[in-house]
Amino acid sequence: MAFVTVAKPLLPILAILLLFSTTINAQGLVVGFYNSTCPNAETIIRTEVVNILTKAQSLAGPLLRMFFHDCFVNGCDGSVLLNGTAANPAEKNSIPNLSLRGFSAIDKVKAKLEAACPGIVSCADTVALVARDVVVLTNGPTWDVPTGRRDGNRSVSNDALSNLPPPFMSAQQALNQFYTPKGLDAKDQLVLSGGHTLGTSHCSSFSDRLYDFNNTKKADPRIDKFYRQKLEVKCKPNDQTTLVEIDPGSFRTFDTSYFKHLAKRRSLFFSDDTLMLDPVNKAYILRQANNSTDTTEFFADFAVSMVKMGNIQVLTGTQGEIRKHCALVN
Fold it and tell me: Where are the beta strands (DSSP E) in 156-202?
């Protein structure tokens, strides 16, 4: 399987925004943090991600999702990668993370980095750079990733449960309770939700919308009838295992088709569907849906919001540590 890496020229304004966001980053992240200590770090990561996706292209979505799930729980510190125990379950053992995949892929990337530059590149930065690379390798935008994050040593199951927005929550509720407290705004929420253009979801994440919406024993009336009928064929009540494409027909390509489905009320998640209730969001969604061949606006916005999300509560300097193995504290 061949991957087409499209080197899309970023708009000058995007370059300025990315530079500005990096310059003002009080946490101390910088683009090219490893230029002197591990100059081939990003090349090593990109090469290994190519190898991983060549064997398992379906991991693109999960590896992008992993960055979201790391940053939203106590910041972008690689804590989602840590193993837990029966007595002390970690973030990856929490219900919202049980469907996460790609941990072994991160381990492979980290092993390559440790072989080249022992104890230099953090797991937190590895997750951030892998997320960028899976987007690029699935025909999405590229951006400079500010690096210099260090790894945390706290990973608690309940932290994930209380910090990750559930798919059954409205977009406005999620904005108020999860995005705004982390320094992200409604625009960030919208464009980051556009990351659902990659990947799949278990039926259990949305089956209530098919069979028992708001405990009514009926379907969510907002779902397009024909789309709902297709989902009902794939997802029977209480199905815990079946995977469904979040962006039907394009779930392995980073593009704007997610917005086209959203505009037609064909989204899996209630949280995504209710993005349309906000007039500003709706105008943006319709703009992407009606001009799906021009990805410039969405790609530029996604890059900016990914950098912004990557700044959440990072550890730098002498904080935390650089893990030798991402699943274990040193």
Answer: 200-202
Q: Quick one: tokens of 183?
A: 């320094």
In sequence order, what are the beta bridge partners of 31? 146
147's enclosing H/E stretch is strand 146-147
Regarding beta strands 200-202 and 243-245, do their DSSP bridges make them parallel or antiparallel, or are they unpaired? Answer: antiparallel
Q: How far apart are CA 132 and CA 119, in angstroms?
A: 22
- Taking residue 15's Cβ as centre, other Cβ atoms within 10 Å add up to 15
Q: Is 196 a catalytic residue?
A: no
- Report residue 11's pLDDT band, with 50, 70 and 90 as the boundaries: very low
Closest CA to 247 of 261, 234, 236: 261
Catalytic residue among 69, 196, 202, 325: 69
Convert the pLDDT of each residue in 183-222 to its tens digit.
999 999 999 999 999 999 999 999 999 999 999 999 999 9
Max CA pair span of the chain: 60
Type of residue found at 313: Q
For 199-250, the DSSP string reads -EEEGGGTTHHHH-GGGSSS--TTS-HHHHHHHHHH--TT--S-EEESSTT-
Rounded mean pLDDT of the chain? 91
* Cβ–Cβ < 8 Å for 160, 74: no
Contact (CB, 8 A) for 196 and 247:
yes
- Identify the structural domains of the chain with CATH numbers, from first to last: 12-164 (1.10.520.10), 191-302 (1.10.420.10)
- 255 closest CA partner among 194, 305, 306, 201: 194
Contact 31, 147 (CB under 8 A): yes
Contact 268, 247 (CB under 8 A): no
- Write the pLDDT tens digit of every residue in 244-258: 999 999 999 999 999
Phi, psi of 151, rounded to the nearest 5 degrees: -90, 135
pTM above 0.85, yes or no: yes
- Distance (Å, rounded) from C-alpha 58 to C-alpha 63? 9
Query: Is 116 exposed, middle or buried (CB count within 10 Å of its CB: 0-12, 13-18, 19+)?
Result: middle
